[in-house]
Amino acid sequence: MNNLNLSAWCFRLAVLYLLAGVCLGLFMAASHDHSMFPVHAHLNLLGWVTLSLFGLFYRNWPAAATTKLAKVHVGLYVPAHFVQMVLLAALYRGNPAVEPALAVVSVLVGVAIVCFAVVVWKHTAETVIDRSAAVSRRPAV
What is the value of pTM for the model shown? Predict the structure, then answer.
C-alpha cells in the first residue's frame, strides 16, 4: 500500500462513517429515540473526522505513510474502531455483557492513536526544526 493509497483509504472509510453517522442521526430524529446518541457521536468523531484527519496527514506527509508504523496504525485502528462501534451500539441497546470486549477494543483504538502520535512526532520534527531555523535566519527589523 503506497502513501496515496493509505490516505485514500482513510478518506474512503471516513465517508462510510459519515454516511453511517448521518443515517443513525436521521433514524434517531425520525423515531424520537435518541438513546443511541453516543454511538452517533463516536461514528462522526472517531469515524468521519478522525479518519479524515489521518488521511490529510498521510497525504501531506507522504514519507510518513510509507512507514510500517503508519500501516500498523491504520491496520489496527480501522477494525478496532468498527468493532468498537458495533459493541457500543449493542451496549446502548441494552446488552451490558459486551462491556469487557468493548473495553479491549477501546484500548486497541487507543494504542492505534498512540501509533499515530508517534508517526506524527517523527515526521513533523524536521518540519518544525526547518521552520524555526528559517525564522531565526530572518533579518532583524
Answer: 0.85
